[in-house]
Automatic annotation (TrEMBL):
The keyword Transferase applies. The chain crosses the membrane at residues 7-27, 33-52, 64-86, 110-127, 157-181, 201-219, 226-245, 265-281, 293-314. It comes from the Bacteria. The keyword NADP does not apply. This is Acyltransferase family protein. Pfam families: Acyl_transf_3 (PF01757). InterPro entries: Acyl_transf_3_dom. It comes from Prevotella jejuni. Keywords: Acyltransferase, Membrane, Transferase, Transmembrane, Transmembrane helix. Residues 3-312 form the Acyltransferase domain. One of its GO terms (molecular function) is acyltransferase activity, transferring groups other than amino-acyl groups.
Length: 330
């Protein structure tokens, strides 16, 4: 589905835009609205796309090559936070603090990968079933009526999601490793995949969702991803974006948007480097255009191009094999 890549493009671009400190501070209401839906939407899509139909070895390899770049970049970000006067500045960096940020309380945008790994492991454990048990249950189901077979499948699915939700609850409330709201959006994405199947049916892209979204967003008290009102914002934003995509974006722009949507990992990993560097030319661009829109466009383009530039260098030098487990990431 190209629409999913388009959604990922929008969400990752907004993530970069509002990691620019000046933009977030100058437009706090816009930041509050964007923070209500951009990463919840990303987690929902991630839950929908997450593949649990893998062997233990294949799944372990997937987790390993998320953990390695996550650990390296989170470590680098934590060290830089101890050296630079940024908002998340660390006064006294120790090995204990570094370990805490890697395994328990990540800093910067890398919390998403931390959440993805924990939610993904919980999802896999809840849905993984031994092949023998699966084949045995299929033989038993063949003797039942179709309605009973459907009922049995629904019961199994309900049991799996109950176990999945229990894992997430324990990680959130029991261990404090997850935001329950973030975990819930990942779970909803998985629920859409396992029960509905078709993403377009769960989020109908219709023109009327635009009007509903505008009316719903008039009240800024709805700008909270951890509330039902915030979940409605996420639903309406996704449905509206699916409708926008259907309008017909010019092909060159469409290709660019889909390329970015298919390659969001480099932006997640490397864009903080360029949002930090943006502070050094911020005053120059603000003198030219005081609203900050020129600064926003230039900085987002700089972060995207720079992140892909780093990835390209890693691909051609062979570092991607060590960093991502692939000869070429893009």
């Amino acid at each position: 589905m190209e629409e999913l890549d388009f959604l990922k493009f929008v969400f990752i671009t907004l993530m970069i835009a509002f990691h620019l400190t000046y933009i977030g501070d100058t437009y706090p209401v816009a930041k509050q609205l964007v923070y209500t839906f951009h990463m919840p939407g990303f987690l929902l899509v991630s839950g929908y796309l997450f593949n649990v139909n893998k062997s233990w070895a294949a799944f372990g390899k997937t987790m390993l090559w998320i953990f390695i770049p996550y650990t390296l970049m989170e470590s680098g970000y934590t060290v830089m936070a101890s050296l630079l006067p940024i908002r998340e500045h660390i006064n006294h960096l120790t090995v204990g603090i570094l370990i805490d940020h890697i395994f328990l309380h990540p800093m910067g945008p890398y919390w998403y990968l931390h959440t993805l790994m924990l939610c993904g492991i919980s999802y896999y454990l809840a849905f993984k079933r031994p092949k023998r048990a699966f084949s045995s249950s299929i033989k038993q189901e063949k003797t039942l009526l179709p309605i009973k077979m459907m009922s049995s499948k629904n019961q199994v699915l309900l049991g799996k999601f109950t176990l999945f939700a229990l894992f997430l609850w324990l990680l959130s409330y029991g261990c404090g490793l997850l935001s329950i709201a973030n975990a819930a959006y990942f779970l909803i994405g998985a629920l859409v995949r396992q029960s509905v199947g078709n993403f377009r049916q769960a989020f109908p892209g219709r023109w009327w969702t635009v009007g509903l979204l505008v009316v719903w967003c008039i009240d800024s008290s709805h700008y909270d991803k951890a509330t039902f009102a915030g979940a409605c914002v996420v639903f309406l934003v996704i449905s509206t974006l699916l409708w926008v995509y259907q309008l017909g974006i010019p092909q060159p722009l469409r290709n660019l948007f889909l390329f970015i949507g298919r390659n969001t990992l480099p932006l997640l990993l490397f864009s903080p480097i360029f949002t930090i560097l943006a502070k050094y030319y911020q005053s120059l661009l603000l003198r030219m255009e005081p609203t900050g829109m020129l600064f926003l466009v230039v900085s987002v383009a700089f972060a995207i191009a720079g992140s892909y530039g780093i990835t390209w260098l890693m691909d051609v030098t062979g570092l991607s094999k060590l960093f991502f487990g692939k000869k070429g990431l893009i």
